Write the structure tokens for this entry.
Amino acid sequence: MTQTVLRNNEIRLPFLGAKINFIGGLDPLGLQNASEQAYSRLLPGLNNVTGLIRSYSFYPWLLSQYPKSIVSTDPSKQKQFIRRAEFLNALISQSNGIQGINGGTLAAKFLEEENNSFDLQKGIYNSNGSTVDTYWKYPFGIFGQYYLGSIRQIGIIEEVVDSNNILLGLYRPTKQTDHSIVSGDSLAKAFESNISDSNRLLYLKCIESGIVNRNNLKQLKDDFNLREIDQTTEEWNLLTKLLISTDTPLIYGEEPKNRRKETIFHLMNFASDTNREINDREFTMWAYDSKGLINENEDECLSGWYYYQLNEYWQLACTAILHASIEKLQDLAGTGWYPFYELIEIISSEITLSLKENGLIESENDEVIQILDKVNSSEKNLYLEIMNTLGIQRSNSSFKLLFKLLKENTINAERLRQYVSENQYDLSKDVLSFIEEFQLTENLSIRPFLNDFLIENIFFRHKHIAYRKMGLGNQSTEKFILEEGMIRMIDLFGPGFTGPRVGNLITYLKDLQLLSPEGKISKVGIDFLEKLKYDI
């Protein structure tokens, strides 16, 4: 065996790593990826924070004005131009009672001062050029953080390149090359047609000078209200057309599809049938209940939303079990150490007793497969139970939801696997893998099943995900420390659904007056839906 010999006066020190910092983190079991891929495919060009449909015409217009106002290829100049415009919008909105415009907190503070005029530069940069505690911390403003990715994906802006095809970090609206496609240039022109020349010049003057007064804010209110769009205008027509346009493929070589248009069709049909205010979760739960079928025929788009909500129920139930399990650890040991496998036995014993008290099993020797037909509560009611209980009751409701999902969806698993494959989802762990794995354990008695599930799918799964997220860094999202058969609590993390972008889509439909402010389908929406039926 080779031995290392220390030379005279040589000292070898052990490697000392940086101290690990524990942070909150999201998705502690790494099960939300399937849901996120699903809604990304179904609603491309949107995200969960792009809350204003008129921004899809405003930003192309603003970018079209940049080279007219400032002749510079320095990206920092365009960033300043956009940041001044966004803070100006916030001041216009706050001073005129227009809600839902980002940057309003700092704008309100400016307006509380007795000054008649305001320095935009003081709202967008600190004296040292930093953006902390300004109207928006992200250097490229609301545009860069919230809208850039989505409006590039939907095809209305592009990054500028030089003569050597090198990206310059500048953006401009796309040119009109096909009249069947909504371009950034056409949206910019439509936006400009809805503002007066005097207000256009005033708005740009305020940006260029960096100064705006209270009279300016009042004068600019109507033209630069990003919450209202006149439905008799070309801007309204183009924004509506943009929403239902063919999706830009997310995968190279993929055939263009119309998932966004079809989602809008299903959402508005749902609104029409319910004739009351709707929300995003009601829609996805309705899609789940439909099992992706319309009049017993499979619908690809609705199947996507069925798969999304199925995965949501599953990831929520698993996360709730993790939360309840760590809560039990906290009850037993506080923040101290506790034997890991003893904890597993205690939790599975309590769940088994609860299942017996609920009439789902007669003894712990019952096979798991026997439980499935005894869960009579709906998925929605079990979800509500999970969210309104803690401890063993939460774990019990979570396992009941898992059993219910198996009972109602195993028959559709192969159809959903085909959907996932055809849409090229990149998945290693989703609800379909759970359904497949269950077939190997369905004849186990309840206690061994619970023990294995808790160890492999909850505790070990979380450790694996937390280590993967940490990588070579020193920030850990671990909710517990597990060492040499002992476990110690670090933090709790509650269950919840992901945001499927449908909420923002509903907001867009309200801004376009296709839905009323209360979320019901409007007269304009009924006419729009009727036309859409023949275009799906």
